[in-house]
Write a structure and sequence with these properties.
The protein is mainly alpha-helical and 311 residues long. It contains ten helices and four strands. α2 packs across α6 and α8 runs antiparallel to α9.
């Protein structure tokens, strides 16, 4: 085997090891990003399971009503979730391009869109009893389902807002805060559902309406917690999502964008005693005529900035 063949074999082995290393890193990054998202979905299922566990103690009609209410609610809410899912890819594309302003704009557009979408979804839920009766459901379960929907309807907007915030945080490779918020929301939801559903701890007995109201309260708490992370914690503070929220066009550039437009450090040149140019500490860009020992004038420039006429 010649030395050239040995070198080719070594090169191929190095390339294979490099490829395996790249795949391992990509897999690790994917798991680090996807695991919190998957656990967040499981946390949301845990909240729904907690609600059903408490509602089940009220009887079979209450369970049937909760199932009917969930059907009416999720048919309309899924439409809003689909629209909010656009925040994640738009923000991720802007994040990959290094455009912090577009990342911020993606989130803000999602928040405004969620507010507009929430209105028809709320109306659909508030008319749930009539919808169920028109579909041939029994009167008592339909009436109980409407009570549950009365409590759930007011939490549509914060639930959609939280989906937009979750997409924003996942797009910038920081999905962990959403998971922490959801893990805290599970016991908080249980502590609210129990007294409002059964009238314990001095609170009124609200039945299914209390269960829905507890879920709405948790939705508001989760979106407030998510917004706190987005405003006060790194790296989300780089995007300044609430600064001049009403007027995006007049908003100053974020630190990342501003750092790109910052002019480089400027300086000027001055001749030394030997006739060679020497950099000065700082100043504007200038063109200086240097007279070396040979007597031939030499023009020299440095750095960027404004130019001055040769002396």
């Amino acid at each position: 085997m010649t030395s050239i063949d040995k070198a080719d074999r070594v090169s191929d082995q190095d390339a294979a090891r490099s490829k395996r290393g790249d795949l391992s890193r990509e897999f690790a990054e994917t798991v680090r990003l996807a695991a919190p998202m998957a656990l967040t979905q499981l946390s949301q299922l845990a909240m729904m399971t907690t609600d059903l566990a408490f509602i089940g103690r009220l009887g079979s009609e209450a369970v049937a009503a909760a199932a009917l209410a969930g059907t009416v609610y999720w048919v309309s809410f899924t439409f809003g979730m689909g629209l909010m899912s656009a925040v994640a890819p738009l923000a991720a594309q802007a994040f990959g391009a290094g455009e912090a302003s577009l990342v911020r704009r993606s989130l803000r557009t999602g928040l405004w869109a969620a507010l507009l979408i929430a209105l028809p979804i709320m109306l659909f839920s508030l008319r749930g009893e009539q919808i169920l009766l028109s579909l041939g459901q029994a009167t008592v379960p339909a009436h109980l389902a409407q009570q549950y929907l009365f409590g759930l309807a007011w939490g549509v907007a914060p639930a959609l807002w939280f989906i937009a915030i979750r997409g924003f945080m996942g797009a910038v490779n920081r999905p962990e805060p959403v998971l922490w918020i959801m893990l805290a929301a599970i016991p908080a939801n249980a502590l609210l559902v129990y007294p409002l559903l059964y009238g314990e701890w001095g609170l009124p007995r609200l039945g299914l309406f209390g269960a829905g109201l507890a879920t709405t309260s948790v939705n508001f708490a989760t979106v407030l917690a998510g917004m706190w992370f987005a405003v006060h914690r790194e790296p989300f503070t780089d995007y300044r999502v609430l600064t001049r929220f009403w007027d995006e066009s007049r908003r100053p550039p974020s630190p990342r964008i501003r750092s790109r437009s910052r002019s480089p450090r400027s300086c000027s040149w001055s001749p030394t005693a030997s006739g060679l140019p020497q950099p000065c500490a700082s100043g504007t860009r200038s063109a200086a005529t240097i007279q070396p020992a040979s007597g031939a004038p030499v023009s020299s420039r440095c750095c960027s900035g404004s130019r001055s006429a040769p002396s």
